[in-house]
Amino acid sequence: MQRHVASGRAQSGDPPILEAKGVTKRFGGFVALDGVDFAMAPGERVALIGPNGSGKSTFVNCLSGALTPEAGSVRFEGRLVTGMPPWQRARAGLVRSFQIPRPFRRLSVIENIEVPLNFALAEPPPGGKAQRALEILESIGLGAKAYGSPKDLSQVELRKLELGRALAANPRLLIADEAMAGLSDSEVDEIVDLLERLNAQGIAIILIEHIMRAVMRFSQRIIVLVAGRKIADGLPGEVMRQDEVERAYLGQ
Ligand SMILES: Nc1ncnc2c1ncn2[C@@H]1O[C@H](COP(=O)(O)OP(=O)(O)OP(=O)(O)O)[C@@H](O)[C@H]1O
Known about the structure:
Rossmann fold, four-stranded antiparallel beta sheet, 24% strand, alpha/beta
């Protein structure tokens, strides 16, 4: 049985920033997502968890536009975006970052932020692209590395650069896909700190993550997918106490 426990932000009565209804995705005969409903308040911090292959990436691909669901709808700030390409959703303020950073290695760190600035914004930023790119790098702690090469960045710095590239679009909703996999405990904390700072600036965040320490520290709400279905959605402590979640997720 699925239990709904609204988070503090979700109870505030704000219209949802994101609303997915009945999202269904099939690959051939295989049902990867089976009628997933999900709504999120502006500025909320939600973690999306579930065992390997449960449909997390497929779901966020449907939210960000990389995949089109066979059924269901996705609304961002009230606007129907189902079928809209990812770049258009990014311009609207719905942006995702990827698990494996793939920076342009021949470009400098700052140029790696300038490239997405070129296409993610409908209008050039007020102070110019270079200034905006530097502001973004400073906000993610990479200001001192701006004119260096991404080849000289550490793993945690590359993850920050990937988040910085997503910030180029001025997101109001950021989907961070496994931004911490393979990092040390202190590096995980650095990324959680960074995500918290971005959230404090008003950016709603969906965190897809297997590292439960980060999930519990970061999220105001957790949703759990198992075999393409949402089996839980609520406050972190309550969700993690549900038998079905323990069986399906922690017991794997
Ligand atoms: N393009 C595709 N073609 C066929 N099957 C796919 C495709 N993409 C995903 N799947 C299948 O859909 C299911 C859900 O995959 P998905 O990658 O969304 O899971 P996940 O929860 O993100 O897993 P992980 O935690 O391992 O990243 C899996 O069984 C996967 O093999």
